[in-house]
Every structure is written in structure tokens, then in C-alpha cells.
Amino acid sequence: MIGQRVAVGSLVLVGVRLLTRLVDLAAAKLGPVPDDRCYCLKVPAVLGGQYEVSNFGTNSRNELISFSGDLAQQIKDLPDGAQVSLTLTG
Questions:
Q1: Could you tell me what percent of the chain has a pLDDT over 90?
Q2: Which pairs with CB-CB distance under 8 Å and at least 24 residues apart come from 80-86?
Q3: What pLDDT does residue 81 have?
Q4: Phi then psi for 87, rounded to 5 degrees?
Q5: Given Cys at both, which of 17, 27, 40, 82 links 78, Cβ 3.0 to 4.6 Å?
Q6: How confident is residue 17, by pLDDT bands cut at 50, 70 and 90?
Q7: How far is CA 53 from CA 57, 67, 73, 83, in A?
Q8: What is the pTM of this model?
Q9: Closest CA to 28 of 44, 14, 12, 39
Q10: Using CA atoms, how far apart are residues 30 and 56, in angstroms rounded to an integer?
Q11: Is 9 helix (H, G, I), strand (E, B) or coil?
């Protein structure tokens, strides 16, 4: 699609199909998740995590939203490719 003109609806459809496939792969590896949990990337894509089965995990929805928001606040002003250092607590 790079270099091609596509309708926004077509781009959304491609994204939905890709996400559906990723969810199918995660479910095959990890099994179904209860309503309060969701599939996620163990290493977020923004930190170099890959969209591949070995990087799939599950997390509670609340923890994932909290972590994602906290991470976004910490890296929002960094340029692409900037080096980051993670400190995990708790």
C-alpha cells in the first residue's frame, strides 16, 4: 500500500483484518481470556516489540491501560529512535 492511494475505509479494513488475525494467533497460543483481561504485546511496539506470537501475552485491562498511559506520558516528547531505559517496580 505504500505509494498507492487507498480510501480510508480500505485502510481501516486492512487494519481490522490484521488485528483480527493477531487476535486469532494470540487466542491459539494463550487460550481465551476472561472479560477483565486482554491480549497484549509483552514488549510494546513503541519500544521495539514485534507483532509475533512469541511477544503475545495477557494482562488485566486496567493494568494495560494504566501502563500504556504512563508509558505514553514518559515518551511523548522523545524523537523516533531515541534510546530509553526501563525501570520496573512492584
A1: 58
A2: 84/47, 86/47
A3: 87
A4: -120, 115
A5: 82
A6: confident
A7: 9, 21, 27, 25
A8: 0.76
A9: 39
A10: 8
A11: helix
